[in-house]
Amino acid sequence: xxxxxxxxxxxxxxxxxxxGTIKRSRKSKSSDFYPIRMLKSLGSRVRYYYxxxxxxxxxxxxxxxxxxIFVGSSYENRYRMMGSFKRFDRSSDEYPFPKLKNLVMVAGxxxxxxxxxxxxxxEDAWYLEPYQKxxxxxxxxxxxxxxxxxLAENDDEALLLFSGxxxxxxxxxxxxxxxxxxxxxxxxxxxNQETVRQRAxxxxxxxxxxxxxLFSVCRFRELTGLYPENITVVGYDFKEDRFVRLHRSAIKFxxxxxxxxxxxSSQTSIEAAMTGETLVKAQFxxxxxxxxxxxxxxxxxxxxxxxxxPYPNGCPEIRGLFKYCGVxxxxxxxxxx
Length: 337
Prior knowledge:
- By secondary structure, the chain is of the alpha/beta class.
- Helices cover 42% and strands 15% of the residues.
- It contains 11 helices and 10 strands.
């Protein structure tokens, strides 16, 4: 006597009651496994579309590939930037200052041209533009340098950067940043040589105030392996609004971690300085990244020796910010946002 025997949903053999064995009606094939049947079906569909609509099939596959690559890279970049504070190894031997986390930046205003260090307070020791030629102007530069050293002295986790490029052709290939460092050295770091000198370096490519800030942030990343947790800018007090409201907003740095330490300009130059500041602020309001119009032309004029700017090689996480040029705030994510 025989009974029909089923494997799954299909009849595969007969059960013999006398012998107690199963006699298969046909041999089971691995291709009967459901996933394999689905793959075979998918393959036949692909072959069909390839034969009937080859161009359309190719376009669909190409589009799917592009979407996969785009989504993957987008998540990877976001992970890199948003996790930058935690992922950078402060103890790494790759960076000379892995334990420093705050930035003190002194924005340069002129180039020191004298070969005699004792003349740092004299106007004829500096290369001054016509609008800068006022009694007491050189002393304000020295005051900025001293203020930066003082702030770094009061913060053991601060890196002091003097920022400014080779902006004056007649001054020769000397940078504003190196000028300020040289003056600090001549002044014996105002009594803080042992504690500040080893944490004081230069950023020697900035051509305007926005680049003073942006380039110094990148330079900080090059030296420490991470981005600054706090930023303090040293400059003239009448430039505070420009840095705090315009430049800080342009790089989207948190206001609660951004500070400005201002010093007064010379009494004889205050009126001309305020007039010039009003104009420059209006220009940055219309062109926050200084990449179009008058600000761009001014920047090019402050690069007489055509120095190649190395950034953002040392800060790849903010490469998009360096490339951005627009009248609205940079839309991308940044490590500190």
